[in-house]
Known about the structure:
The chain is an alpha/beta fold. It has helices at residues 16-19, 39-50, 64-72, 116-128, 186-191, 198-209, and strands at residues 2-6, 9-15, 24-25, 29-33, 56-61, 76-87, 93-99, 102-104, 107-109, 134-147, 153-165, 178-185. The longest helix has 13 residues, at 116-128.
Amino acid sequence: MYKIYINGTPLFLANTEEAGGAPFVDDTKIVARYPGNSRLFLNYLDMLEKNTRFDSVTVYGEDAHQLFSDFASHFRIIEAAGGLVHNKEAEGEVLLIFKRDHWDLPKGKIDKGESREEAAVREVLEETGLSSVELGDYLGITYHTYRDRKNRRILKYTYWYRMKAERETLMPQAEEEIEYAEWRHLKAFLDTGPVVYGNIKDLLERELAI
């Protein structure tokens, strides 16, 4: 199953078994069978870009990978990488940044010739001012969409890695509109109901559950 955030709303692309039932629509959810015509996705994109009425939309078919391929065909693809950095000196603390009125994790576009791991480390150092990090496990991939300055639809793949770092003076990258970078206790942070992007919240909640 794929989970793609569109204007804050998750779109799930699933196989028939994962969808778990027949098509339906109510006040909060849509579940629809994929008819094989990728233009269906344009209808959902238009709807989700214009409002946040629904909690989720699920489109299902025999092959979720084919659904994702058809969905992605409507986008320019950008690959990025980032890190969930744990404080070596304080159990349960992670490094968060605040930009564009949301809490976030340090991440950025993968440059030509870079590996995903190299890009993740570079972006974390650049965006937070840390002098070094210890690269850990691969955590997975998240997807979200947006419009670029030319109004083109972008589908961003972000590859995430667990990292560790020592506490030191943080210097948020102002040119990336990062207002501040802070070490925060993960459980206490999530308990406050912070304004955080859906894909970032998913990642943090998975980490807390481990």
